[in-house]
Amino acid sequence: MRARPRSLTSQVVEFIEELCVGPDVTPGDQLPPEGELATRFGVSRVVLREAMKTLEARGLVQRRQGKPAVVASPNALPVEKFVAFAVLRDKRALMEFTEIRKALEVHGARLAAQRIAGPEEPQTRPYVARAREAIAEQRADPLDMRNRLRTDFAFHQALVAAAGNASLTQILDALERSLAESREESHRRYLASGADPAGSATEHEVLLDAVLTGDPAHAVAAMEHHLQVTLREIESRPEGDEADQDKTHRDGTDQDGTHRDTAS
Q: The domain containing residue 132 runs over which residues?
């Protein structure tokens, strides 16, 4: 079968990708104006703008109204979009990506415990303080759903940041945002069960204490247990729950416009 010729837009995307990853390029560097780029590559501004949209969606550039685009910092935006789209199309993907999240967070807990037990312990202190603050804020108002979601996300974000692996942090943040509605559903089901609303804060406290022992095996076991509860909760959901969540996502009924977080 003869290969299809690449479109002009695809070719321009490749050219600009090369500009963005050049050895002398750093995040925040300004790209030439769109008109100059269109002339350089011998394409129309329409083609150039389509290429820039593609690059922006991939997280390689940041476009600014009335100003030249800039090279974006490394980020997990493509991962976030991929996960969100996959979950919308296939309810099984929710379990699969939650399992991936579990594996990554377990590794993050191991790394955090290792750093806490070693010479890098001082660098972990701001993140430990942030995790404690999130626990306290959740315990202060455990019935407020927005507070529960915000503090739950903040706790897990702080804990993985303590691991000191920026790429791991970015990928997990992308997963968290993409699985936002699942976390909200988990919190709703937890509150509806009649369990102590402050129990989630206590669970996070136990998890943080395990990491603070500096024993990687202890930290791993605690995170494994914490997220296995989440997996069992998702598995127990009645058939159709995911479809209802997908409709909510597509209809845009999240009025505050904020990201909601995954089940924890």
A: 77-251
